[in-house]
Amino acid sequence: MELLQTSLILGVVVGIVYSLSGAGLVVIFRTSGYISFTQGDIAAVGLFVGLAAYNSGAGYVWTALLVIAVSTLVGGLVGALITVPLEKHGHLPAALSTIATALIISGLLNLTVGGDPRSFPEVSRSEALSILGVQMSWSDVAGVLVSASVFIGLGVFFSRSRMGVAMRAVNDNKLAGELLGVPDRRLKLVSWTVAGALSGLLGLFVAPILSLSTVSVNTLLVFGFCAIVIGGFDSIFGALVAGTAIGVMTNLTSTYLDPNLVPTVLWASMLLVLLVRPNGLFGRRKLVRV
């Protein structure tokens, strides 16, 4: 029973943090209509810059701010210089460009910093509190609180603010948005900037767990992709629910079955949801008027 409680609680904690990966993908999909496969590499750039600053004597707070700032900048640049300009040729070229960009960034990182894993600092390793006998560190608590705050903020932003509603309208009905004077390109660049910041924030919590390498953060892209497929490509709430469920499911699989089965269970769950609800559990079905 104690093992089950531990697996469930830690699964929820890890899943909520992993959901940030899905949130970044949803932000871009809502405005552009395609998935970005470069979020992990954008985070890696910020993390390596932050690690260099930390090793040079910067404190954790400054390191974290630098990671988020660099990831935000890189995300904005990728959107402004590559993906958004390519959207005039269709969603497929833009989506494929994110794969090419990810491979280029990964190659450059391998060339400059090497592929060896490195330890990354965390908020604190000291125990903060105990939930049903499960000890939680300050890093765990910070990850849950920050992730929950981000999801609340994104939910309010997309549902209440004029910019958030406009960002949704850009992809839902581009022609109507243009007629109403919605700044299509500017809003898409905002989405890439926000997604870059989210990838850097995610990296701060997962790099200490997975260690930092040129490919380690990309592992989270898999969880994020599965989360938005299961939860719905355009649903922030769906990314949170599905990401949390994935965290619990993978933790239970690793504990009671075999860690090697985690990818199999993950992809099988995603396939099952696609067969039953192709738009995801919380995704919207597009209506076509004829």
From the structure provided, what is the oligomeric state, counting identical versus distinct chains?
Answer: single chain
Approximately how much beta-strand content do the residues carry?
under 5%
The outline comes out as globular
Radius of gyration from CA coordinates: 19 Å
Q: Which series of helices and strands comes N to C?
A: HHHHEEHHHHHHH
Which spans have pLDDT < 50 for at least 5 consecutive residues? none
N-C termini distance: 56 Å
Number of strands: 2
How would you classify the helix and strand content by structural class?
mainly alpha
Main sheet specs = 2 strands, antiparallel
Strand order of the largest sheet: 1-2
Organism: Nocardioides hwasunensis
Subcellular location: Cell membrane
InterPro entries: ABC_transp_permease (IPR001851), BCAA_transport_permease (IPR052157)
Family: Belongs to the binding-protein-dependent transport system permease family. LivHM subfamily.
